[in-house]
Design goal:
It is a single chain. The chain is of the alpha+beta class. The chain has a single domain, classed as Ribosomal protein S16 (S16 Ribosomal Protein, Chain: A). The relative contact order is 0.22. The chain has 3 helices and 5 strands; from the N terminus they run E-E-E-E-H-E-H-H. The longest helix has 10 residues. The chain is globular and about 40 Å long.
C-alpha cells in the first residue's frame, strides 16, 4: 500500500517537510516514490505548496494519506475535490 506522508528534512528546531508518496513499509526518511509538495510550519505566509494534479493522481490510485496529511489536504480544499470527483 502507498501512503502520502510527511518526510522531515529541516534542521534542529527549524522543521521543514516534504509531502511524499512512499511505500507504507519504508522508514519516514526512506526512498520515496514521488515528491508531491512541501510544508513549512515555521514560516509566515504560504506554508503548504502542493502539486495538486499529482496528489489527486495518487489518491485516485488508492494511496492513503496519514492523519496529518489529511488535515493539510482538507485545509487546502483538495480533499473535497477528491471526494466529490470520486462519487
Amino acid at each position: 500500500m502507498v501512503k502520502i506522508r510527511l518526510q522531515r528534512v529541516g534542521t534542529k528546531k527549524r522543521p521543514f517537510y516534504r509531502l511524499v508518496a512512499i511505500d507504507h513499509r519504508k522508514r519516514r526518511d526512506g526512498a520515496v516514490l514521488e515528491s508531491l509538495g512541501q510544508y513549512q510550519p515555521v514560516i509566515k505566509g504560504e506554508q503548504l505548496t502542493l502539486d495538486e494534479e499529482r496528489v489527486l493522481k495518487w489518491l485516485n490510485v488508492g494511496a492513503q494519506p496519514t492523519d496529518t496529511v489529511l488535515d493539510l489536504l482538507k485545509k487546502q480544499g483538495l480533499w473535497k475535490k477528491f471526494s466529490s470527483a470520486s462519487k
